[in-house]
What does this fold into?
Amino acid sequence: MILKNIEELKNYLQTSRNIVVIGHRNPDGDAVGSTLALKHYLDKKGHTAQVLMPNEYPDFLHWIPGSETVYRFDRQNNQCVKALEKSEIIFLLDFNALHRVGSDMENTLKVYENDFALIDHHQQPDEFTYMYSDTSMSSTCEMVYNFIEMMGDVDLIDKNIATCLYTGIMTDTGSFRFRSTTSRTHHVVADLIDKGAENDRIHSNVYDANSYNRLLLLGQALSNLQMLTEYKTAFITLSQAEKKQFNYEKGDTEGVVNYALSLKGIVFAAIFIEDEEQGIVKISFRSKGSFSVNQFARNYFDGGGHDNAAGGKSELSLEETVVKFKSLLPKYVKQLETSYND
Ligand code: 5GP
Ligand code: MN
It folds into this structure.
């Protein structure tokens, strides 16, 4: 864990400030939940906080309290720049390096280098003025709860803040089932329910928001599933044409990689999704046990993340990317064999 200048930050926040709170590109439940929870908390403390996101996030996250106040850098550039110019401190949540907001926003942010406060659980974070980094944490939302506690303000957590935090913990832990889910995570979640988070509603808002096309796209993805039993590996591909056929919308492929990991005996799963707009293949990796997909994504696919959940990209074609992926596996046959042995 890294705690850097947090006491100074606490003092700094004794006076009301103009604050910007930023999540990563392609924000997920943890990014949206943590940024909005922090915004609600800071506003309640008498600050003026504005959340900025690099780009859009899926519809199933739009119900989160305060979502309508978020500015998108790709769409509301003027408002974003104005908020940044006014800001005295900038919080970076749920990402570890500036490039994770995308190059346009990164270039704008670079000039504000002295004023960053990081709260994040990804590995190998860059250096910022104020830091609370802990790679053992289930989610940035759990860390925002801890941060509010460090500020001595747990009593300020209300229904809105609890709802935001519950959402991010739930999505980043795969509904409280990944190894990162600790007894402390459950204690935090219990407190959030006591403070007003309606757990059944939150689950339903996030997970029962499928469109008909999304389920058909899932069907296509599952019929593309391939198993490489000798490497305890399974992977899924989705081409641009298949996405188009089922009217792909942002977020439609979220969680699909987990079906590959749910196969009995499989410890390493990947999904390769062709993205014509960006000219890349976007990849998600998941693993069970000691095989680090963070390292794998960093080494070969220009990515990173956590030990058991990471992402990356490839500029090769979809087919070539899969060939590359398969060619890497023999090197890891032993690690994959023993990754999840007990
Ligand atoms: P997902 O597969 O759900 O998109 O991402 C899984 C994890 O890997 C997340 O924690 C995410 O932040 C991280 N991640 C996804 N894509 C990338 C990438 O291109 N670069 C890096 N450094 N991390 C990524
Ligand atoms: Mn996260």
Notes: The chain is about 40% helix and 20% strand. The chain has a mean pLDDT of 97.
